[in-house]
Each structure stands twice: as C-alpha cells, then as structure tokens.
Write a structure and sequence with these properties.
- The structure is a single chain.
- This protein is an alpha+beta fold and 429 residues long.
- It folds into four domains: 67 residues, no CATH class; 57 residues; 56 residues, Thrombin, subunit H, CATH 2.40.10; 195 residues, no CATH class.
- It contains twelve helices and 15 strands.
- Strands 10, 11, 12, 13, 14 and 15 form a six-stranded antiparallel β-sheet that branches. Strands 6-5-9-8-7 form a five-stranded mixed β-sheet.
- A hairpin with a 2-residue loop joins strand 10 and strand 11.
- It is globular and about 65 Å long.
- It starts with 6 loop residues before the first helix and ends with a helix.
- The mean pLDDT is 90.
Length: 429
C-alpha cells in the first residue's frame, strides 16, 4: 500500500484490511494516519520513519481497543542505528515542532485560495495567515477584491489543487506498456532519478523496467522485469549562493543561512546486485538539467580544521562524509526525513573560493528545514559527532556516512576525516 497507487487500488486494500480479508498489509507511511483500517493487533515499523510523531502515529494503529504490539526494526540507516545504540534518545524524545515557512508562496498560495473559498479574507486574517497572505491574495487571479475582502471567484474547489506529497502538481504517470494500465504516479522532482529509461520500478512487490520516459506527456512506460539487480541514479549537482540572509560566528566558523539556486542533472545510473550490492554496470543518460531556488545553510571550515587532510581526495571525502552525516541527523531537530534535504560538498566552491559544505531544503522555495538547522547548529553537530563516534565500523558504512540518496554513488567518503572535522568544530564552542 502506498500513495502512488490509484485511489481505486488504495480503497480496495483499505476495505479488505478493515473487513478482515487480509491478515496484514505492507505499507509506506501513506497508511500512517487519516484512513480507517479497523482494528489491528500489531504494527511493525521497518526503519525509523523520520520523526517521533510519525512513529507514534504508526504504533498507535495497534491495540486501540485492547492489547497491541508495536515494534521498530532498525534499518542500516545512520539515524536508526543511532537510536539502537541509544534507545532512550528515541523513547524519551518529545514530538518534533512542526515546520512551516509561510513566506514560501508555493506553500502559502494554496492556503490563501482555500481560506478565501470558505470566507472573505480581510485584515483580521493577518494574525493567522501572516502579512504576506493579503499581498499574495492581491496577485492571485482567481481571487476578487470586494467590500467584504478577497473572495474566491474560481470554478473549482481550491483545496483539491494542493498535492499532499510535494509542492508541485506536475507528476509523472507510470504506465504498463503491455496493458495500458496506470500503475502509479511519481512526483516531478523525483521522476528523473527514479523512472528514467532503464530504471527498475517496484509496484505491488513486482519489478518493472522503464523502457521509455516521455517528458512531454510526463509518462514512464514500463514492462515486467525478472532480473536480479536494482538501479541507482548518479547526479551532478551545483549550488549557487543567491543571498545570505543571516550569518553568525558559530563553532569557530562563519555559518550562513540564505537562498541558493540548486541545479541538478541525472547523468547516469548504476546497476547493483540485489544479493550483495555489487556494482554491475554504469549506464550513461541524457536528461535535461533541472533548477530550483531554495533555502540552505553553508559554512567554510577554518584551515586548521582540515590541515591534516593532506590530499584533495581525502579533503573531499571528509567534507562529503560530514555532509552525509549531518543530513542523516538533521531529522532529530527538524520535522523531516533525509529525503527532504539535499547537500553539496566541494573542495573549492566558485563563490566562496574555499572548501564548503551546503545543506539545503529539497523543496522549491524552502520549507524551513535548514533554518531550523541554523538555529540548532551546535546541538545538531554534537549529535552528528556522537553518531560517528558510536558506529563500530572503521571506514564508513550505511549506518554512519553512506547515504541511500547520494548522487555521487557514495564516492569518495572519509569517515575519520569527517569525525575529525566535526570534533574540531565542537572544540571551538
């Protein structure tokens, strides 16, 4: 069960589960809340879902009218393993503060339209929706200004326009070429990396291979696949600083928060064995570059913090590993998971002229994730260093510095160098 299925497919599963025809269901967090599936005896969460609030929602599905069982089976993800070593950090942790960036018009516009549909918007709404809301109302063509305030003048129901899985509406359709049936939907921002030509796509436990990706009609044609490998996309990313809104001296370096422009291009994909994760082949792709503006934090380590990283590869590996581990632990401080965040590390950034680490919101316009990281920087770095120290591996593994979403296929990475950098930052507190 997942959100990418059609509504009819989801309703059928919900009804069969509620009626007791199914003894169990394997689901993404699409089944986490808001759907009546009757009385469940047990919930097994496979991997930490990203937030304590999500975990409690999942566990709360079981035992609503009697005894129930809830379990967390950790994945090899860094945050999961951190909680396995320090369970009280999870069980005693408060629910995260929700993040909302009401200055992002991609988020705000949908709320303004829906509010105006219910009642006229006037100056009294500033206390709830913020000062920017009425400015946006004046610019939206579907809203008309009347004596009572801004009212909805469109022909449709505005809340139906707002997607729950992303800030955009231009999703790609996944179509089975042999039957013409729609298997699911993929958000535009994930399409190039998940349904590119040659990608292996999973649907209801079955494997499909993408034979064509039509960018004009936004459709991926797939066919059944019985091979023993999966695919991982390789991306080239560039981050350009647009404006630094806040800069502060923190942990011995200048920490900045502001707006950036992120350019991404999927250039290849790697075939990896299902059995042992071995790399089988690297296939080149020719896909367009995408670009979006978002919010980010960035910092340049002081020269003494990296002075013993004597080769360019070791320096880049240390920065890259530090970036990955920081991204893995940011969900401890912000209501998000690592798939909501992106990053870039470079030996020499073309604007700073020095080694630089960026961590950015993965949603256009930003939604407040990295701003929360800016505010909690000291605690965030402390948790990240503790996680690296506690992982028993020597060279780095999926439980500390390797990332399942790395566009560079987790190369290069230097765990020892990353820990040294973070420890030196901590010592400057």
């Amino acid at each position: 069960y997942r959100a990418g299925y059609t509504p009819a497919q989801r309703r059928e599963i919900e009804q069969r589960l509620s009626a007791g025809e199914l003894l169990g269901v394997s689901a993404t967090n699409a089944l986490e809340l808001g759907i009546d599936v009757g009385l469940l005896d047990a919930v097994v969460s496979v991997g930490f879902p990203g937030t304590v609030s999500s975990l409690r929602q999942q566990w709360g599905r079981a035992g609503r009218r009697g005894h129930g069982l809830a379990a967390l089976v950790a994945s090899e993800d860094a945050l999961d393993q951190y909680f396995m070593r320090e369970p009280q950090a999870l069980l005693g942790r408060r629910v995260e503060a929700a993040i909302l960036d009401h200055e992002n018009h991609r988020v705000l516009d949908g709320h303004v339209r829906a509010a105006a549909f219910e009642a006229p918007l006037d100056d009294t709404d500033r206390d709830i929706l913020g000062d920017t809301a009425l400015e946006r109302a004046a610019e939206l063509p579907e809203l008309k200004h009347t004596a009572a305030g801004y009212v909805w003048a469109g022909r449709d129901y505005p809340a139906a326009r707002v997607p729950l899985r992303s800030t955009g509406m231009d999703a790609f359709t996944v179509v089975d070429r042999s039957t013409g049936s729609v298997l699911g939907l993929v958000e535009h921002e994930r399409a190039y990396s998940t349904v590119h030509e040659g990608a292996i796509y999973l649907h209801l436990g079955e494997q499909f291979r993408v034979v064509a990706l039509d960018l004009e009609v936004r459709a991926a044609l797939v066919e059944p696949f019985s091979g023993d490998y999966y695919t991982q996309a390789k991306k080239e990313t560039m981050t350009a600083i647009d404006q630094a809104r806040r800069t502060e001296w923190r942990l011995g370096l200048e920490l900045a928060f502001g707006s950036v422009v992120v350019s991404e291009q999927v250039v290849a994909y790697q075939k990896k064995s299902i059995h042992d994760q071995a790399s089988l082949d690297l296939v080149q792709l020719d896909l367009p570059q995408t670009e979006f503006e978002t919010e980010a934090i960035w910092f340049v380590p002081q020269p003494w913090m990296t002075e013993d990283l004597d080769s360019q590869r070791r320096l880049l590996g240390s920065l890259h590993a530090a970036e990955h581990s920081l991204i893995a632990l940011l969900p401890l401080w912000a209501m998000c998971d690592r798939w909501d965040i992106g990053g870039l590390s470079t030996n020499v950034h073309f604007q700073t002229g020095a080694p630089t680490i960026f961590v950015y919101d993965g949603h256009a316009g930003g939604v407040g994730i990295t701003e929360r990281g800016f505010e909690a920087f000291e605690g965030w770095v402390e948790d990240t260093a503790r996680m690296l120290r506690g992982c028993p591996c020597l060279l780095g593994c999926p439980s500390c510095v390797q990332s399942p979403k790395c566009g560079n296929l987790n190369e290069p990475l230097d765990k020892a160098g990353a820990l040294a950098l973070l420890e030196r930052m901590r010592s400057s507190r």
